[in-house]
Fold:
Amino acid sequence: MIERIGKWFNQKVKNISYALGFFTNVLKESFLFVRQKQVGVKVLIMQIYFTGVEALSIISLIALALGVVIIIQGLSLLPSFGQGKLIYLIMIIIITRELGPMLCAFIIIARSGTAIATEIGNMVVNHEIEAYISVGINPISYLVVPRFFGVSITLVLLTFYFNFFGLFASFLISQLITPVAFTEYFQNLLQAMHLSDILSSLIKSLVFGIIISIVSAYNGFKVRFATTEIPQVVIKAVGQSFVICIIADAVIASIFYIIK
Amino acid sequence: MENLIELKDVSVLSQDYPMLLNVSVNIPRGRSTIIMGPSGCGKSTLLKVLAGIIIPDSGEVILEGQDYHTLSEKQIMDFKKRNGFVFQDSALWANKNVFENLSLPLRFHFPALDAARIEQKVKKALEYINLSDSVSLRPAQLSIGEQKMISFVRALINDPSIIFMDEPTLAVDNDMKAKLLSMIKKLKSGSSTIIAVIADSVITSMLADNLIILKSGIILAQGPYQEVIGSKNSEIKNIIKEILQKSSSYDQDLLDLLNE
Structure:
């Protein structure tokens, strides 16, 4: 029993040190990325296209739906308490500060996180990673860093797009319920919005992007011999990304609360 | 004869199972060294350790007189630039077409080379193996034999002086085998160092200056081809006999053609 616990503990320590080593390596290679002769730029462009452009339709739809839900629920409830103006603050808190970055992160985990883990896992099984090493190309620098930059940058941009679209959609729907002038609506929104809301959204989306790209790539590289391992690492990548993003969200929210 | 690569007491473990156990090997520069042994004895692992693709769990890898761990990134890159690796299963990059598979090593190692020169070099290589029409195809669209040829050409595209080959003629038809062998013979007649895993005794006898016999991750014999092949050791004799019985494959016409 004690031996088994010892082995389990040893394995956990090994895994954590390997993950930390992987993370450090990605950071190191990221700093070198701009300086080095670049063959990875195309991979970066493809990653931004796949993560960002191809996800725009689903992001738009979710932002629109969320905006609709908030405005309908808010406008049907708050005015009865004489707190109609609170709807703007609620929208900023829910869309900009909380759900915007988180929902975008969830979409990117489902789309790009799974794709990264699957692609790298397949490359390991098919010895493509070894082929990169044999040529002298560092797989971290060529495969992980462009995905790291691609997912992180795109998630920030998508979150801002989500915020804008969600808030704009709310305006359109509000016209059907309680028509408000365009300038009045956005003036009220801007009054309810603080720099800390934008900063919080920016930091969260950036941190989520870093988490998703690194966790997915790390799990992809954990495949050893068989394609049957790939679905297992993809599930792990998704689960770990969700959990770490939610923890990071709580930590960032707490930090902003303390600073405030 | 100067040693290009030396392994001293090298062990490689896979999930605590020894793939190589205390292996010490000398690879002389400018000669052909063939690794032989029964299936699953660690031949491919040994080849990948020699090429710097797999880092051993223990022991020393000495490259041109210097410990691999003490080499600078530039020195390692210089070594990789001078070598080419043909994988047993081709290991072509599945998400790249044939042109990209062949041009990536060139773009990586020779950033000053302009696009027209790269295109010319790739086209010339494809013409030589009669696969000019396949330039925009993905590896999955090629036959196994064609993939092998592309993998071979990819390994030679940098004009390397050290060639690692893992069963280069496995699973290819006779026409392609003849083509591959004529290319290998051409390499041998130059000053290239060839290190290969070859199960076919006929090709081995044509190529080998030195022979390494491996069994269950342990070196049974190594040295000049004639010396090892004429060994009185019964275990070595049995292994060679076993390999001789399994090979080959080659009809006399083909061998005559190759020996012209």
About this structure: Chain B touches chain A at residues 48, 51-53, 76-77, 80-81, 83-85, 87, 89, 91-95, 104-105, 107-109, 111, 164 (CB under 8 Å). Residues 249-255 of chain B have pLDDT under 50 and may be disordered.
